[in-house]
Fold each of these.
Amino acid sequence: MDYRLLGGSGFSVPVLTFGTGTFGGKTELFKAWGETDVKEATHLVDICLEAGLTMFDSADVYSDGGSEEVLGAAIRGRRDQVLISTKATFRRGTGPNDVGSSRFHLINAVEGSLRRLGTDYIDLFQLHGFDACTPIEETLSTLDDLVRGGKIRYIGCSNFSGWHLMKSLAISEKYGWARYVAHQAYYSLIGREYEWELLPLSIDQKVGTVVWSPLGWGRLTGKIRRGQPLPEVTRQRSALSHEMGPKVTDDYLYKVVDALDEVAAETGKSVAQIAINWLLERPTVATVIIGARNERQLRDNLGAVDWKLTAEQVRKLDAASAVPLVYPYWHQEKFDRSPLPI
């Protein structure tokens, strides 16, 4: 398993991270993702470590804290062998302060995650979303205090817009506070909006991309094809999960899947492996989060590394997944002096 530096930091992370959204299955949404218990989670962690995948991603809202609890139990006794990333910001209770990125909520969130994970530090702590109601200075000064106190090693954010991220980086620089080294973002062959603003920003500011849902909310697993019924077990069959995911038209999806099938026939690799491998060659991508309900899915995803698509295969996938740019990006594309992708 290759390792890459995370953004402009000296922190090395494996190119694949295991996402633990399938652990726990306590709520309707997360039952659609998976219901992995401690025994099965321990087995999956064993397989990951054998393959050199040492980073595990969670969040306090996954299965209402159940994901962190199961992960903590699965890594018990081998904390020194793993890297843990987790997230907070979304609502975790009924009180007025049980949500957001205030000092009050973030300190409580970190303490809760540490308790559920059974550890005294988090390697990478990320804001799960941007809180427009809390001053950015309050949020970043709190994260800086948590870093200086040893409870967090590195900080990142997730699902930020370009201006959210850039303003945060500027404030960190102004005050000398800990800086976001990672942005956990949705990016896939059927979700390339990340490239318009966030990718050039991340190149310029040295922010590493942690990709979530590389298979387009379960659509690029190889199980969904033109003219075929949905498989029996898929998050697409959960109305709640389906509605929360990114919207994709059938025509666009099938066009991309057709191209993936062509490349699969040429390479002997699975559709999922090709979709993940394509991401690993994109600028700024430090690690791609893979998920799995079982050993078979995990081993298939692990097969996405240690090989490369040809330039022609990349062009084929790029062409199939290309979408018209929105303003101002279509206008910027006409200016041929930009060294950055837009």
Amino acid sequence: MNNTTIPFNQKRDFGQVFNTTMEFIQQEIKQLGMALLYYVVPIVLLGAIVMVYFSMEYRNFLGDLQQNTMSYGSNPFRMLSSMMGAYTLLLLAFIAVSVVLQATVFGYFKLYIEKGKGGFTLQDIRAQIGRTFLPILGASLVQILFTLIGAVFCILPGIYLGVVLSLLVPVLVIEEKGFSHAFSRSFELIKSNWWLTFGLLLVAGMIVQSIAFILGIPAMAMGFKSLFVNMQNPENLKNFSFPTIFYAYSAITHLITYTLMAFPYCILAVHLFSLKEEKNKISLEDKIEQITNHA
């Protein structure tokens, strides 16, 4: 068994999970950052381009819709199909970013545990991503489906299932025992720890969204300024569009925000090991194994 610098198999409370996550990120920032740069950032960049395309299509859609109220020559179904096509591309890009990001982060934790600090390369991470991409895609779609079904009946069941199934992908990747095991294991581990998990996800999400909001302030300022200037002349609103720098900056903030989503996933991975220790006393088993091996 390879020893690691950070002993993940320990029961941790709320603050300790955050502290251990920050310690891990500080320790692995170089290699983890390179993995994100090589395997996640290109997909996020593609998603940012699709988002800009969607924004422009939405602007054109609103413009055509406005023209249609004055002239019935436009085809509303054609306008709507163009808009839905852009939205579909945006949705696919979002799913691809989420899957690759989770495969990278949780795969990194799996390799770190199995091979120890510095015991694996970027090629190992790439192989891990390739091996888990489709299973994570399927698990993510199931997670979204169950959460939406719960939300349809009532908001609270949707929130409950969303928190419970937040461990579905990390268990699937790290324990590598199949989907059915990961599904039941998620419910088993969350039992009696739902509020703790909810709190961790809420705070981690708020941290990321707060940073995203701060980064987005310049874009909002540019957008309001452009809109205000064009409102001085109603004729300009017919062909209104934001400046190019607005779309470029929005793409950059989109890129940074999605990359920062690695932080909540790191929180989930550390939390997973804490819950496993509480349920299975893994660290005790490791100590017994070490004593046996040295006997």
Amino acid sequence: MPKKIVILNGSPRRKGNTSALVNAFTEGAESAGHTVTEFFLGGMNIHGCKGCFGGHSSKECPCVQRDDMDKIYPAVRECDVIVLASPLYYWNMSGQLRTAVDRLFALEEGDGNLLRGHGRASALLMAAEGHDFEDVVLYYNHLMEHLKWKNLGQILAGGNGGIEDIAGKPEISAAYTLGKSVS
């Protein structure tokens, strides 16, 4: 059965190593008949969470802030799979991705929890100059546990210092295979 997949791409580079992983995953997923919607967070106006607990998950715009998250909320509500994609910055996801993930909390607030559970699944795509993904994987695994999402896997591509260093590396085909394997 075709799935609706949302990719939150936290890279600041449209043609960087993380985006190469996203493109490969997308090709694999679309070849399997899935629908993919990518949000390039680096080009969006998204403010940090105010921690106000003013969100209401069932409202069309669940957060009290009006910004580009209003484009993301409807897609997340309707999707089956959420892919988190980011370069590794200081042993974690980029600020762009962390900000969007924090703001998804509005879908857990108020008069219904529209984020946690609901049969959703997730994958993590990351590229980095180094190879130390331990801290971000720990965070990601805790997030999956909290949200009760099935963890589809992680593609962690280290050793990519230059913008197109990932080209031809095995992680590209692994991202394609992961996208194709979504079921």
